[in-house]
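Input protein
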Amino acid sequence: MPKVESRRSKFSQPRQRLPLSTGARLRKLFPVCLFVLLVAGNAGAEPEEDHRAWQHGIDVIRIGEKLLVVWGSPGNPPRANPGGDWQHDVFYAWLKAGAGEEAALGAPQILVSRPEAQEPPSIAINAAGTLLMTSEDGENGINQRAGLWDSGLRVLRKYPFTIKRGGHSGHVAAMADRFLVAYGEGWVERGGFLDRGTGKDIYVRIVENDGARRRETKIAAGHRDGWPLVAGSERNWLVVWQRYPEMSLHSALIAATGKVTRQLQISEHMPVRYAYDVEYLPALASYVVAGSSGQGGFIALLSLAGEVEKIQYGLPPMASESRILAHCDEAQCIGVYPVRPRGVAVVRLKPGAIELLKLIDHPYAWDYTGTSGAFVTPDQVIFVTLSTSGIKLVPINLQ
């Protein structure tokens, strides 16, 4: 697609186990990690070629007992065109990652293939078992488009139907049998990642189970806002996005009607592009927002009313375009997220309390092209991550 971030060449278009008692070691580690973050936020320090030309955008969702991986790539392995228009298709594969077995990814298959790039893909499944996949689409100009499938990946409404003409950088989450797609619109040249510009305004739109588009709501305007992420609860959705040049993180709570019921700034001084995530934890009846700020990493718990219940700074910094994975049982909720430049952080999440349990070292260095994953057992996670050489599996034992 014509790279709008030109915009990005798209528009852009978002470890050793350490005992808790070794606080001094962590304090020594954080300034180093923060330095890396600040360097990464400096366009002059990035490689000349944008790694997203190779692969960009990945989701892992659970369908019954199976894990589905969806990602954007110009082939597998990727055949990039970093100096020209991108040609990403949307691929899927089933992930084998059961307890006691070696993780393996099935053969990649095409979900969507059309002229120009469809990336980054975002996918969600609703209570009716319908999947909605949305992507920024470079065919005939930049537009946010979508398609619908059932849980067996049979087409229910063929891709592409348009969510927003001129829309870009979209993500989706489900609530009951509906979806909310959050996306950007407009572009401001210069500045931002690799000096390719930033988004301008943020919108959301409800999409019904049959693909019917409902009201569109503008939730951010008058600034340089981009890379909206969204999570859904049983009552509403929470959208988070980044504002440039302040590099602050903002949120909007969206009711089932599509109305904005609350907005607030969650954090400031976030020096890395798109180093944040939002998920919903039913066990806590709270949204969890993880990210990287000028004080290292942070995690915030937000209520269903959109209010910050607890925010903990001084955590390890989160890798760009990665997710926090969560597992809850009767005793506690555990969150795991990729740490820049490598390894993972393990945190305990409780009402009104967020505690770093450990850092786990791992040799793999996270790229900024997309990382997602899932818990395999309460003591094991698997991250599925994109790179210039192709999709990778990174299993982590939490014990």
